[in-house]
Task: structure prediction
Amino acid sequence: MDDDAIFDRLRSLTEEEHAMHQLGPQADADRLRDIEVMLDQCWDLLRQRRAKREYGGNPDEAHVRDPDIVEHYQQ
Result:
């Protein structure tokens, strides 16, 4: 997935997340959690690609990491 595709995915997920928040208590909590995890994975993938590019690596070698990994990063 190239950077443009990642940004498109981020945009789509963010729009869905905002729509779900508008629903308030009727929002599907499991789907909202899934969206949050996918957003974290997309941001992580984008960071990996940028780091590889910055240090002379191939950004196409970056990969989506497991949710258990991206969800336990220290902020």
